[in-house]
Design goal:
With 502 residues, the chain is α/β, with parallel strands linked by helices. The protein has 17 helices and 25 strands.
Length: 502
Amino acid sequence: MTRYDSFAGSARLAAADAPNATAIVDGPVRWTWSDLDARADAVAGSLQRAGVDPGDRVALLAVPSAAAIAALHAIARVGGVVAPLGVGLTATELRVAAEVLDPSVVVHDTGLTTAAVALGRPTIPLDELVTSASGRDMEPPSGPPSDPASAAAVVLTSGTTGRPKAAILSTGSLVASAEAWLAALPPATGWLLALGLGHVAGLGVAWRAALSGVPLVVLPRPDVTGIAAALAADPWPSHVSVVPATMSRLLEAVDDAPPPATVRAVLLGGGPIPAELVRRAITAGWPVVPTYGLSEAGSGVTALPTDEAVDHPTSAGRALPGVELQIAEPDDDGVGEILVDTPARFSGYLGDAAGTAAALTDDGWLRTGDLGRLDGAGRLTVLDRRTDRIVRGGENISPGEVEAVLLEHPAVADAAVVGRHDATFGHVPVAAIVLSPGAADPGDDALAGHCRERLAWFKVPVAFVRLEALPRTPSGKLRGAELRASVDRLDRTDRPTEESLA
């Protein structure tokens, strides 16, 4: 269970309990809890002087680092609501994010100044905030609201229309999520953060470490060489969360060698998990824990202990403590929509009452939009992710957003994007296009380049197929099954590589 019941107060309490114990490791940077407490105070004081009041949203545009973790603590201390953003978003995507989130200020890495400016809000370089901690000449913040229902984070998720939604997660939601995870997993002696802070899973790792009072090792990128080295170095993190593509690369990097004996749990999630990957990892001695979750549920929903994953490699596990699952309107095979009841449930979508209502049943269960079934032991198998979303290596893609960009190209009259199964990344986007009458075919490279100028790399389709017309109903709605069949039949084999799209 958690050692501290407040993220905002965790560093201060840990500094009182064990001031010289390791709190954060970031390459050569090593902070004690006392160090983290001081820097969180410094950043909090700077935020207050910048006019940040309790309840204000603070956009955080930063790679994982000691400084970024200090900012997370500081935002919580002043009662702000952190709105973490992916560092790979384009200027267009950032402007849309600013419209949805409406942050009062942007805290950012110095190297991301241009991107931060694109948000059109006042900017504060993170480096300046953290280095100012040495002075300790500022008044400590008065403290955040104690109400568990107060918003703590707003996380962008892919929407069905191309415009992202912003899921509001309360303090109580994130605490409940951390408690559920810590109760389900072996005791943690330290966490390795190998996910971006723009992901709810990345935020979750930071909260679990803080509420447990254990060291957090941060990596600026999910580089498998860095992950392997960090797991084998002091303070020897016992827990890490990765997406399946990273796990596959990690096994290749270490030539299927076992991890250090100090590693107790390797959470796998963020998209479809190939059964063969689970078998391979377990055979190599890695304590993988298949999971299933979503932003609206505060991160995780299920987990499967490693010893069970050996015999059930296709399962995402049982409900975490405090979480309930049910399958809505199951067919003869028991397959239906996965519904979730959890104390970690989101508070709603920011500025979208209709979207919030549509995400919940009449009795308050969360509609995941994903299909699955439960076996007699309560283990969940996820059979298909929501059809309006593509998950590529843990990154969510809205087909509508990619389609809107394709339609901006003068040679494209109509477009649709679907997901294709990929052994490494779970799914990848493939575009079906209809050329404008009389337009010359610009070619795949030009279409990919057009998308790359406007979209983060992971949203760029890996292939483009040409159709005379998209299959639509008389009302204009796409016929999904027919479209997928056409794309599967015409999908090209000479598609761009992942490296060329990054």
